[in-house]
What does this fold into?
Amino acid sequence: MTTLNPQIESKVDVLIIGAGPAGLMCANALAHAGVDVRIIDKRAVGVAAGQADGIQPRTIEVLQSYGLAEPLIRIGAHFPRASFWNPGPNGGIIRTQRTPSIFSETARYPQLITRHQGGIEALFHGSMDAKGLHVQRSTIPTAIVLSKDESELKDPKANPVKVTLKRLDLEEDDIEIVHAKFVLGADGAHSWVRNVLGIKLEGDNTDSIWGVLDVYPETNFPDSRNWTFIHSNHGTLMNIPREGDMMRYYIQLSEDPDFVDPKTGRVNKARANPGRLMETAAKIFQPYHLKMLGEPEWWTIYIIGQRVAQKFSVEDRIFIAGDACHTHSPKAGQGMNASMNDSHNIAWKLAYVLRGWADLSLLKTYESERLKFARDLIDFDRKWSKLFTGKPRTEENQDGISHEEFVGAFQTFSGFSSGVGVRYEPSAIVDKKHQSCATKLVIGERMIPHVFVQAADIRAVNIHDAMPSDTRFKVLVFVGNVTVAATLARVRALADKLDAPGSFLHKYGQGDYHKVFDILCVCAASKDEVDFIDVPQMLRPHWSKVLLDDTDMHAREGGGGFAAYGISPEAGAIVIVRPDGYVGMVAPYEHVEDISAYFGSFMVEKSG
Amino acid sequence: MTTLNPQIESKVDVLIIGAGPAGLMCANALAHAGVDVRIIDKRAVGVAAGQADGIQPRTIEVLQSYGLAEPLIRIGAHFPRASFWNPGPNGGIIRTQRTPSIFSETARYPQLITRHQGGIEALFHGSMDAKGLHVQRSTIPTAIVLSKDESELKDPKANPVKVTLKRLDLEEDDIEIVHAKFVLGADGAHSWVRNVLGIKLEGDNTDSIWGVLDVYPETNFPDSRNWTFIHSNHGTLMNIPREGDMMRYYIQLSEDPDFVDPKTGRVNKARANPGRLMETAAKIFQPYHLKMLGEPEWWTIYIIGQRVAQKFSVEDRIFIAGDACHTHSPKAGQGMNASMNDSHNIAWKLAYVLRGWADLSLLKTYESERLKFARDLIDFDRKWSKLFTGKPRTEENQDGISHEEFVGAFQTFSGFSSGVGVRYEPSAIVDKKHQSCATKLVIGERMIPHVFVQAADIRAVNIHDAMPSDTRFKVLVFVGNVTVAATLARVRALADKLDAPGSFLHKYGQGDYHKVFDILCVCAASKDEVDFIDVPQMLRPHWSKVLLDDTDMHAREGGGGFAAYGISPEAGAIVIVRPDGYVGMVAPYEHVEDISAYFGSFMVEKSG
It folds into this structure.
């Protein structure tokens, strides 16, 4: 097997280092966008088993936009209810309150937890296979050199990043020099890319020590199948239902003197074992009984650390994403969610620049959007971990955390922990000027999912499913009741304006605007009155592209969409949704030229 | 490849002849039930393409109960709206009305149409693969002999059916003698099994000639994506939307003299071709234009025939199912639906008899239930085809079919054409005595789907998904609000009675009643008040088995289940659902002994 090859050189548009969730999300998106991409990983095989991860509602939306969510929803454990327990009068715990797990009203999906990261990775592998892209395993980078030639750095067609790759399973001389246009370092918390570029992490470890284990318990605790937070006089515990009858427990160990060196306050790992973790858990669960059946599926102990990289990019040619950028506590349920959303953010931007559709400057928005997110995430995690780790307020301990404070924070943080509250600040691709046209669609946040019906067949469809991650901008034209002559006249005038030679569609359409812009028309009209052919032809490139804000044939779904978005049916609005699903801008019919200005700030002009 | 083998003999519990939808449904069910089963087919390969088939809501429910529905729902074309067109004042067609496609309020799924029968068959193949069962292809039966020995016929352990099999791809002498306990002939409309057993078909061909073709049309007809019925002065046409932009047209040809021999009234196939069919269609669509883009995907012409076999069974040892039993017009959308539901009906009965759990007499209910269904189906099809084929009522033709008559029949027949209205008559396994305990759950009809929430985690679940086709009887214990002491006391008394040594669970439990009976407990109690552990232990064999008649955490689904079933929360009820999903009986708490009598009529007593 081991052969001595001459050193080879090659070129690639994007080289991704690391095939965890962050790297795979980007690789899959780029492969489906037709981008020349390679992905390498030091591991000889993928993750076959390992720690589970919670998947947030927003992450499921993103996976769904790539057609990958359904297996997860089917296989994952769901826990729609949260439950809060505190010390009772007799020393044992009593239930204080039960609430929904997710308070974000617009979340389309539940939160869930899946068997292991390997399951997520397998989804990407299957999807990449269909495009002929495979992870090159047992391969590491040994050197990375970025050209210092300014003209090269500014030339989108240049390959200014030189990466030396080495096969771990072959002889020493089997190396390859790759000349890449762009490199994404998605190589984990101990990122080689980050280190070699000298990017520092900001933040530190806390003194909060936790054990986590997955077990099949025998217990009479009634809220096992809920997302349960227990603040007891014996410490804090978080109970997460897993697949089948499995349970995950996060157990505070700082309280248990056996695990902690009293002098240093550091964890004494040698004394930890699943039996001891379960003993601690059993004390916390009193007066309910708790026993482990058989062996645990998995366990570990850890100290919470919260760190963010100083920057996510070097010269907009080398980027880092995922755990390479941020590490935080697992209890916030962020884990790989933040990682996948990092690379979902950058993938379409790389595709646009590589196709020559957008200026290199578009890539700056990756760092500006995701670094701010990561800092907010760490802030959130610090506050949440502090509340979580704190002692409960009791008669004796008036300085402790009150239930009201804790559950209040749980609700406040829900937009964050669900992922649907992420908001990007104004930038070249977030223009808040006409926010008043769609008062409830926050520009910079992800498009709100809502069920409409297709005008042609009255099939109910969530607007998210009409907006796949296909790298196109979605141009949602909200029109009123086109069966009213005056409204139709206005809509026809708008269609003419959109179809005029100088409109943004033609100006930035790269010769065939359907490649760049996906037009959908949403009518505030009754299914009994309107036909899909009533809408001007240019607003219905396909029969499925005309939606009605009405209920389905059995009045089970649909309706109320204009109200949910805060769009007036009389005035209408044009909503521009970015390829990653975030609202980029909104404009009234009268200001179509502002949409042109929006695209002009980062797109390259090229008409047909 | 061709070798001369000595004649071999073998034994099998069930031999299925024919691997179309009927045969595969039975083979898959039996394989998952652990039954010794073989399935043969004369075709060398499965159906790779071919005519599409509509799939009814009830068929999707059945497939879902085997875990097979999701790919179909995703891939199939949906058409929730029906549209009716008639001659207008100017001779062209005008729209008269639009209605839902399905009027059965309890239908859980839409009606849909899939690419081809091969897609359905592939689902079964995948599911059977998991159990190591594969279709033995290029194999035909050449002789079938049923023992005349009464004692052998009455011995469920005997193998009284001798079938000679021959491989079509090997030499003449490569035959095998199979001694089977039971044989299912699912070998299609020209069934060899039916013919060799001398079972006659009753019924005849009509003189109604139709063409059908799948095309990509260019048209300005606004209702293309609806299930559209056109009665024009140029004939009748049914328009069914297919996957993507494809359309299926059923076109009446009897009206077109070019296709019909004026003397015999028979179709002149030689003159038919897709272009000619489209010409006829285009005349019917006037004033809308219609043109075929490219070549048709598929086309044929046919004469409607409606026939039913005299009987479906010989000595309850050899059965026929599917097209071998009944042929009818494709326009009723029955097609393979009736076929799969035939063998879904018999599969669990064969499993029970073969396990020694039920008496051979149970198998009589296959013919009694499915022959009656087939006759009703043919009656329905005759009426429907007549209305469909008839000329529209116009000023000039007062004897024609009025729109009101047609759409009225469409609504009346919806329970039938959706498949959810199928009702089995009283028999050993349908006991209507206590119908008044659950006024809206019709005994003999399929259990009504409804969304409840799991008490343990408040996850919404359709009760259908809690009742998979796993061959177990579902014992649904509807209790009231168990947080009320008096109610709980009554429920505890019931649990004690159910768990008493002489109860039906123990009497017919075959040594471990959980193998035979799946117990679910449905409470009329609020999620905020009740814990799943409040229910007596024997009514919750697993935490997922306690359901609440309440909404989910976001009040999006659930609630109203007791009302939908017509069960009083104060009185409660016990509902016995057969393994095939049909309600077998209902009993009040006070008459648990009637449930014993029900099972006593066909089950074999065997306690632990």
Observations:
- The mean pLDDT of chain A is 92.
